[in-house]
From TrEMBL, chain A:
The keyword DNA-binding does not apply. SUPFAM superfamilies: FYVE/PHD zinc finger, Rabenosyn-5 Rab-binding domain-like. This is Zinc finger, FYVE/PHD-type,Rabenosyn, Rab binding domain,Zinc finger, RING/FYVE/PHD-type,FYVE zinc. Residues 148-223 form the FYVE-type domain. It comes from the Eukaryota. The lineage of its organism: Eukaryota, Metazoa, Ecdysozoa, Arthropoda, Hexapoda. PROSITE patterns: ZF_FYVE, ZINC_FINGER_C2H2_1. InterPro entries: Rab4/Rab5_effector (IPR052727), Rbsn_Rab-bd (IPR021565), Rbsn_Rab-bd_sf (IPR036531), Znf_C2H2_type (IPR013087), Znf_FYVE (IPR000306), Znf_FYVE-rel (IPR017455), Znf_FYVE_PHD (IPR011011), Znf_RING/FYVE/PHD (IPR013083).
Automatic annotation (TrEMBL), chain B:
Belongs to the STXBP/unc-18/SEC1 family. GO terms for biological process: vesicle-mediated transport. PANTHER family: VESICLE PROTEIN SORTING-ASSOCIATED. InterPro entries: Sec-1-like_dom1, Sec-1-like_dom3a, Sec1-like, Sec1-like_dom2, Sec1-like_sf. It comes from the Eukaryota. This is Sec1-like protein.
Amino acid sequence: MRDLYDCLVSNMTEFAEENIVLEGFLCPICKVDFGLDLKLFLHFQEAHGEDQDLVKSFKELFGKAKEKILNNDIVKKEERRYVWEPQEIGEVKSHIQHFKNCRNKWVEHFVMETNKTVIRLEKLLCNLPQDPNKRKAHEKTIVQWLDGTDVKRCPDCTKSFNITRRQHHCRLCGSIVCHECSCFLPLSKAYETINETIQNPMDFASQSLPSFRLCIHCGQVLENREQIKYRDQKPPMCDYYDKIMECKNKIENDLLIKFNQVYNLLKEGELSYLFEANKIRSDIVKLIETIDALSNRILKMENNSNSSKTTSKNIKLAMIHYVRSTVLAIPALPSHQEIEEIAKRKREALDARLRNGQDLCMDKNNLSVKNKQNRTSKNGAILKLEDGWSPVTNANVNSDNPMVEQMNIIKNYIKQAKEAHRFDEVASLERNLQELNEEYFKMQNNSDNTSDY
Amino acid sequence: MDLIQAVKLYIVKMTEDCGPGMKVLLMDKTTTSIVSAVFSQSEILQREVYLFEQLTSTSSTDNMYHMKCITFLRPTRENVSLLCKELRNPRYGYYYIYFSNIISKTDIKTIAESDIQEVVREIQEYYADYLAVAPHLFSFNISSCGQCLSWDPLQLTRCTQGIISVLLSLKKCPLIRFQASSKMSKQLAEKVKEIFSKEENLFNLKQGDIQPQLLILDRREDPVSPLLMPWSYQAMVHELLTINNNQVDLSHIEDIKPDLQKLLLCAEQDDLYKQNMYKNFGEIGEIMKSLIDDFKSKAKDHQKLDTISDMKAFVENYPQFKKMSGTVAKHVVIMEQLSNFITKKNLLEVSELQQQIACDIQSSQHTQKIRDLIEKNIPEEEASKLVMLYAIKSISKDSNRELTSLIQLLKSKKVPEHWIELVYDVMKYQSKVILDNENTLKNAKQITKRFYKDLKGVDNIFTQHVPLLKELVEDMIKSRLKEEQYPFLSDINQPTKKTQDIIVFVIGGVTYEESMSVYNLNTLNPHVRIILGGSTVHNSSSFLNEVKLATFGVIKSRTGSRKL
């Protein structure tokens, strides 16, 4: 209105400069005097409303364009960022079948070789003479030694033999290698390899040659066999670690789930669960303490190698992280008072709801109840207690929850029973109602819980 | 199409494949950076991986049979032989072997024959053979693609393998397009195609209605973009401080706190960085200021802990508080460094002139302005970069004379010889041969563009230049990319229908500024998904280094690189 008036005034002054002077409530477009401001306003809205809209929309367009040009897309960039739908893992290709096929052939060959080597070692060790010369003869009878006259170079390193680089025979396969390409197998270890304890330990004390010379290849074969034996050994750290994982498992797959359930019940106002919640909480804390202590023990363990040191340090680090994130994830329990308050509020809300439902039933069943009332009042005095009595179920107690429906029905029964002066029935019905009420609460809570997960 | 997710999913799968128990991750140098680009240490520790070893450093002989070994390697010959050695004397309990790319059957056989103790439980190809720098950006960290303006065969293989792994990890089998003017991009396109046909089974992927497109470009087409001073946060940090494997090294700064010497800039873990990495310097300044104020007030709140509930709130908020204080402190240090550089190098003036040269604004005054700035004693690298830009952009006949005089001026200012060499190198490097007839056509397009630009008005004089890459991708989105200049690599004429998934690879590296424009294009066009990759992510100095190596051996002649 104000704008219109201003516009009007300006119009008038404009016109004043021209020849004709028009006064009053003029329309700025068609210049008709309307006499009253309200009339002019209505006219303007009716006749020029559309034009106005057009101008307005033009203005908006320009405004938008201006905005777009000026701000470009800098402003919008801040809020928006592209989001791509979650993806599945990319292509993979497994080679394990081909790998196993190749390996099986090779492993068979290797097993055969190992067995051959071990059997030879067994033969060598059987009745091994102590005298060096005799021993050499014994060794030669078991394994055919290669004739060294034509061997000019070591087959492993291809360096030629001379006075300083002498030929040596592998005691297990009889081949010729140089000193660098051979290794020694101590007798004690040799006996160990064939699973025999040394028969006469005293004999070996005076041994001048307490070991066998082997080529690198045979040495490797025996070494691998040894390694496989020790593969299953685990350092004490593993026990601790297993215990940690056990604790972790218990927290994650058992206690935390339970805690969340109970916590939700508390939030619903179930005061009786407070004790249990506290207990679960302290259980979790205890387990966390155990984890902490165990990881400390791993950290303090004697580690001779760098890698195991790093490992235990990292385990400790991971556990600190884990402990921190778990502890922080456990919410503080509501206090006694808070729970009571929640329960009170909840009860009130439920009561209100039930009352509403009851009222509805009452209204609908008014008629039948009245009929009954009439009947009972007629023969109320001559009512005999031995007479059978049964309440009438009304079909109009429907509710979307069967539990609520049941409760409504029972309430109806109680009313009827009261009217029929069946007070023992009233009492038992009331007990029923109480139980139903409790059940209903529990169900409500559970459904809340499940929806949380 | 999220690259970081793709790599992460692979690594998570690796840690799940071998079940519970202590694990060690055995890697080579490249895969180490691939893993560390997407996983933080604490994240990977939560997956029971407690030890990280390099395959090359197998000197330690202590056996840890109780640990499961996840082996993640590139399928190189060296790695295969090292792995065989490792398997002959295994230090760990069981081995789960993953190669980051396609490996030959013979290599598998060699490895199998070394596994006499039968410790290998799994051997697979998981195609995570690239550095996922951002969800839409990958790099292979190749500092130089070749010499004499052609491929180093080794790097050609590496790029081919890398692109193949990107495609497989995203399950895409695209149409290939390449830049017709570049020999290198054609070679790479053909190599990729070769693997498509060789590994038919792998690339027999379920595709949607619209086939993705792979566009291979050559940096030589646009040497301007990497030379310009960028003003978005991430790009600035890279230009002035250098980001290497998500790390910024500040140890050269005097009296810096030891915990701030090596800063990790990782969008996955640093929300502040994630939200602001594409904002410009001015915006970041404001954000930092408000953050610090906010932070100070919070710190004050924490100081007065009167009631128990205050304490409780404090303890509950503390880890967050501490984390935030760490990030804020980190970014404050970086911002301080950046603004130091800006004043020290006179970057505002330099950048304005750079933009004017790059966008051909007031071209008549360029030489004079460059002279003025050089007289002002701006740092030698900035002075030389201005001359380089001028050399690339100027096409008129007398520009040659002007250029010679500018170089004379540089010499008189005692700019070292290698910078002057680089001016010539850049001219050799740029591939654009400007022909007269093409020029008129292009100019007409340019003029209309300029006209629209003038209409719009310039919102920021420091960021007027639009990288060529952005224009190309925009054309591609509208299916208007010229087939003569960017043909498809196939005999059948491909119908250029709609485009949905676009993968762009730039031989010779990309810049973070280009990454930002791809990010923005992704945001503005929700119906397309664009991924950008480069042989590396350049800043101006690493780019010039590549230029130097790439033009090594090219005969010195100005007329050879352009028509005068």
